């Protein structure tokens, strides 16, 4: 069994900022990633806008504006901490060599980052700082000590025959991303909710799971949901008639409504000014490659759109933050990035882009420092560690699962979350149907899923269990919030109601909900 002070699970921005912050605080740090740290995940595959506002009146106005949009669910103290920490940490990133563009006055423009270059710099930074990086080492379960404190994790080495690894740690930071249910959105295949499941098994609470209805527009055969590219788009019907976008409307909104109605929408970037076209190709090359391979000139031709589900990546929900250092409700366990709720800074509005990008930097910083402090205070305890994983690893029935069971469970779960008609326009009736179906899926998974000796099969089984659990939390929270607020829309409760509070959810075999109380909020602050 390997040993370390802080174990970081994940390999994206939040994970690398957490690792950097912990090692800078004097901790020994190991980082384990499901893929290759610096190249896997949603951020590495895209551009990353940031909430980068200088101190003073502009920052105060930005915070007020976002708070007004969030319909009462944000915490302004957290907003101030995040925007301030982002501002400070980007100076560090500049010092580490990130090539920020410079304006005509010689001032660096730090409001966005190119994902591949950003993550390459972060990997190099933590490697040089002494972090031990274990690529292709997905975690499958947490390790718990005799006091009920999270004290490590276990998983498999994918490129070493799927052998099992175990790491004892003084504290663990989960930075495993959100969950897109394998919808195919570019860069999100590692994001299957594994960290949420591991945390919930240890007793962690979640929050904001009803705010999980975000879709991004993509070419019909593509996976690149670059909404910013389509801000310049002209939309057309299948017969070539132009679709007018009304004041306050958006390409995303029209494409979503048409998809729910079963109507195809086409887009063209023919209206993009000539002087912006090269810049667009440079900033988002992945958007253009599949279209050009299909022989489409996006600045001349029309191409069909579809909406791709982005779940709790561009949604808001995740593990409930129970302290200023991004502690979860389980001792020894910290959360950073999309695995944690972002309601504190965005409410129920998508944090996609600027806010999620800044949350990754800031929450990673808070969690890494907090985990280092926790580990230093408590010390490393390796005696009597028990593996905590259950569903998908240790089925109740003896024997091993049928090889196709995991895929069958995943497909059945996707059928109740990926269609926009079920997710964007919710009704109590459909939610209750989903609840019944997913309760049955969970019972099947609990009884039969797991027990396979090949580590890669075990990973697939755990992914299936995590996605079922994720949808059960989403469904329970959507049923509990009997109103329409932010991205959560109920056709049977179409008005904004009086549930002006965050909704906590937890449990595995039995799902429960409750309002977040004032005591919870004081603890988190």
Mean pLDDT: 94
Rg: 22 Å
**Strand fraction:** 15-25%
Query: Total domains, how many?
Result: 3
Total of helices: 16
The low-confidence runs, each spanning 5 or more residues with pLDDT under 50, are: none
Q: Name the structural class.
A: alpha+beta
Q: Total strand count, please?
A: 19
Which key features would you list for this structure?
single chain, 525 residues, alpha+beta, FAD/NAD(P)-binding domain, Flavocytochrome C3, Chain A, domain 1, Methane Monooxygenase Hydroxylase, Chain G, domain 1, 3 domains, eight-stranded mixed sheet, five-stranded antiparallel sheet, 16% strand, globular, electron transfer activity, oxidoreductase
Describe the overall structure:
With 525 residues, the protein is an alpha+beta fold. The chain folds into 3 domains: 287 residues, 3-Layer(bba) Sandwich (FAD/NAD(P)-binding domain); 95 residues, Flavocytochrome C3, Chain A, domain 1; 97 residues, Methane Monooxygenase Hydroxylase, Chain G, domain 1. Helices cover 38% and strands 16% of the residues. The strands form 4 sheets. Strands 1, 2, 5, 6, 7, 8, 16 and 17 form an 8-stranded mixed β-sheet that branches. The chain has a 5-stranded antiparallel β-sheet with strand order 10-14-13-11-12. It has a 4-stranded antiparallel β-sheet with strand order 15-9-18-19, covered by helices on one side. A hairpin with a 5-residue loop joins strand 7 and strand 8. Helix 3 packs across helix 11. The relative contact order is 0.17.
Could you outline the blueprint of secondary structure elements for this entry?
Blueprint: E1 2-9, H1 13-24, E2 29-32, E3 47-49, H2 57-69, H3 76-95, E4 112-114, H4 115-129, E5 132-134, E6 139-144, E7 150-157, E8 163-174, H5 194-201, E9 206-207, E10 215-219, E11 234-236, E12 242-243, H6 251-260, E13 266-268, H7 274-283, H8 285-293, E14 303-309, H9 311-314, E15 318-319, E16 333-335, H10 343-346, H11 354-378, E17 386-387, H12 405-414, H13 420-423, H14 428-448, H15 455-480, E18 503-506, E19 512-515, H16 518-524
């Amino acid at each position: 069994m390997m040993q370390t002070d802080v174990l970081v699970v994940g390999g994206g921005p939040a994970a690398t900022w957490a690792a950097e912050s912990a090692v800078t605080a004097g901790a020994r740090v190991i980082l384990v990633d499901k893929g290759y740290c610096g190249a896997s995940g949603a951020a590495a595959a895209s551009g990353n806008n940031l909430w980068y506002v200088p101190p003073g009146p502009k920052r105060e106005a930005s915070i007020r504006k976002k708070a007004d949009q969030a319909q009462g669910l944000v915490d302004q103290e957290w907003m101030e901490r995040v925007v301030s920490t982002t501002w400070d940490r980007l100076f560090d990133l500049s010092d580490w060599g990130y090539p920020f563009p410079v304006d005509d006055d010689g001032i660096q423009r730090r409001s966005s980052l190119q994902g591949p270059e950003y993550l390459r710099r972060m990997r190099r930074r933590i490697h040089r700082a002494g972090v031990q990086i274990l690529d292709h080492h997905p975690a499958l379960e947490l390790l718990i000590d005799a006091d009920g404190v999270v004290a490590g994790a276990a998983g498999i080495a994918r490129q070493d025959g799927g052998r099992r690894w175990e790491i004892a740690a003084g504290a663990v930071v989960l930075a495993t991303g959100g969950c897109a249910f394998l919808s195919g959105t570019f860069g999100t295949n590692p994001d299957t909710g594994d960290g949420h499941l591991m945390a919930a098994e240890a007793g962690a609470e979640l929050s904001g799971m009803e705010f999980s209805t975000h879709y991004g527009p993509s070419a019909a055969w593509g996976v690149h949901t670059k909404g910013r590219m389509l801000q310049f788009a002209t939309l057309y019907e299948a017969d070539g008639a132009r679709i007018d976008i009304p004041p306050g409307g958006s390409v995303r909104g029209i494409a979503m409504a048409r998809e729910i109605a079963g109507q195809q929408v086409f887009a063209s970037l023919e209206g993009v000014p000539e002087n912006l076209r090269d810049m667009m190709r440079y900033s988002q090359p992945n958007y253009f490659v599949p279209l050009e391979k299909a022989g489409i000139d996006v600045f001349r031709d029309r191409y069909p759109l579809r909406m791709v589900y982005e779940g709790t990546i561009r949604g808001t929900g995740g593990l409930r933050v129970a302290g200023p250092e991004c502690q979860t409700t389980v001792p020894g366990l910290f959360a950073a990035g999309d695995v944690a709720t972002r309601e504190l800074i965005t409410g129920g509005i998508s944090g996609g882009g600027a806010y999620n990008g800044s949350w990754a930097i800031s929450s990673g910083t808070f969690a890494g420092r907090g985990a280092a402090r926790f580990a230093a205070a408590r010390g490393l305890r390796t005696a009597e560690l028990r593996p905590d994983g259950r569903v998908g690893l240790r089925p109740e029935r003896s024997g091993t699962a049928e090889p196709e069971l995991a895929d069958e469970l995943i497909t059945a779960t996707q059928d109740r979350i990926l269609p926009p008609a079920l997710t964007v326009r919710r009704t109590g009736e459909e939610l209750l149907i989903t609840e019944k179906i997913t309760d049955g899926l969970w019972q099947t998974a609990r009884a039969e899923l797991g027990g396979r000796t090949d580590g890669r099969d075990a990973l697939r089984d755990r992914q299936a269990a995590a996605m079922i659990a994720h949808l059960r939390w989403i469904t329970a929270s959507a049923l509990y919030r009997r109103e329409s607020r932010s991205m959560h829309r109920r056709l049977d409760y179409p008005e904004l109601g009086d549930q002006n509070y965050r909704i906590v959810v937890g449990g595995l075999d039995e799902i429960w909900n409750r309002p977040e109380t004032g005591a919870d909020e004081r603890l988190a602050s």
